[in-house]
Structure formats: structure tokens, C-alpha cells
Amino acid sequence: MVMRRASILALCSLLLAGCATRGSNTAKGGAASSPSSQATRTLPSPVHVIGRVIAIDPRTLFVMVEAPPYTPIPADFNGRILISRTDDLRPTARLQASPYLRGRMLGTRLLSGRPQVGDEVVIAPVAP
Q: Which stretches does DSSP call E strand in the chain?
């Protein structure tokens, strides 16, 4: 009998907690109604991270980039301009994507600058 009362009490408190958190701050359709939440909405970054520099051949100006697993590579990747940058987002070099693509390894050609091993590589944003 005591166990039954305890389980009913637990069930009632779960139902009340669910009703309390249902929230009245959502408008019809589930969208937030407060203007402050709409002002803080963020947009996706125009910068697409490709990977990190793992090897540099200064003689042939060839830079190898390792992409993280499951990184989407754009269909028109060959010939795209890339930027290598440090962890504090300072650009170190401009690269051009080559057709070399083996698994997670991407080949690029050094156009200008001095990339370092470990630099992040991103697709250069297109100016509007």
C-alpha cells in the first residue's frame, strides 16, 4: 500500500513538472515570441573549414591538408582559393585546391604566404 502511494505521488509530480515546463513563451507554431530571442539568432558562418596543414614542400610549393572525418567537400573544390590561418585566425597563406584527393588527404598549391604545420585551412569567402 505504501509503495502504491509513493508511485502515484512520483507520477503526479512528474506530470506537474511536465506541465510547468511546457512554457508560455512560444507563439503559435512553436516560434519564440520575445524580440530579444529573435535578435540573438545566429547565422551560419560563411567560412567553411576544410582541415589542417600536415605537410609543406617548399621546393614544389605543395601543401598537404588533412580533413577531419565526415567533412563535406564541395563538388567544385578543384581550383578553389583556400586560406590557411593560425588558431587566433590570422591568415598565413593563400592556397589553391588541386585535384589530388585521397581519402582525407587533400593536395593544395601554395600561392603566397608561409603556412605552418597545424594551420587551419578554410575556403576563402566570396566577396558579394
A: 49-57, 62-66, 81-85, 91-102, 105-113, 120-123
Q: Which residues contact 111 (CB under 8 A, 6 or more apart)?
A: 81, 93, 94, 95, 96
Nearest to 64 by CA among 75, 77, 74, 54: 54
Q: Measured at the alpha carbon of residue 104, what is the angle toward residues 102 and 105, in degrees to the nearest 5?
A: 60
| Residues 50-59: tens digit of each pLDDT | 899 999 999 9
What is the reported pTM? 0.62
Q: Does residue 88 contact residue 26 with C-beta atoms inside 8 Å? A: no
Give the residue carrying C-alpha cell 582559393: 81
Name the residue with cell 608561409: 114
